[in-house]
Specification:
Length: 57
């Protein structure tokens, strides 16, 4: 088993940060009933999923 390289860790961290920020924005938007905040959260989660699917180490 080979250790992961530095770019792999950076991409993984980016995906986790985007996903966490998106889920936080979705939860906050649902509580505050703010549709624009829900939209930002959904697009952040979509971006995280696309990066995860496209990036192949």
């Amino acid at each position: 088993m080979t250790p992961r390289s530095r770019p792999d860790h950076e991409v993984r961290r980016t995906v986790l940060v985007l996903g966490a920020a998106g889920l936080t924005a979705i939860a906050t938007g649902a509580v505050l009933d703010a549709l624009w905040l829900l939209g930002i959260g959904v697009w952040s989660v979509i971006a995280a999923m696309v990066i995860e699917l496209v990036y192949q180490p």
